[in-house]
Amino acid sequence: MTDTGADPVPQVERELGLLMRRARSASAAMSQQLHPDLESSAYLLLTYVGRQPGVRSSDLAAHIGVGRATISRQVHKLEELGLLRRRPDPQDARGQLLELTDEGAHVVTTTQDSRRRWLRSALTSWSTEDVTTLAASLAHLNETIEEAAAAARARCADD
């Protein structure tokens, strides 16, 4: 970041905090639409499995940023609800791969469509160029935050 005068980081921190609170609330609502017994992270988990069929639980846990015990509990709940299934990993007899059931895929698609309609409605006053810039900036932010988090984890592991 180059120095151009006033420090923008405090405003970024405030705006991100507000966005994260709103995102948590929206995530909880999405999970409730999926099923009333689901935790707020269920939507994120299911959409990731939908994009990455055959993902291992450990890789899913790393992507979402939770421990293996947490992901195991969440996967078990989604499996009980008929939204997710496990299958043996042909390359590792101990491992299991995750995939959506037909019902899980239907629920994710329906919820995604609803969420995207809401986002499009919320962004109607924005130009396509502004929405494209936002998407690219958010992707860049996510990448750099993950890099910083990975570096912090590596430093902790070295200590």
Automatic annotation (TrEMBL):
Pfam families referenced in this protein's UniProt entry, alphabetically: MarR_2
Example GO molecular function: DNA-binding transcription factor activity
Residue intervals of the HTH marR-type domain: 13-143
Any one GO biological process: response to stress
Name assigned to this protein: MarR family transcriptional regulator
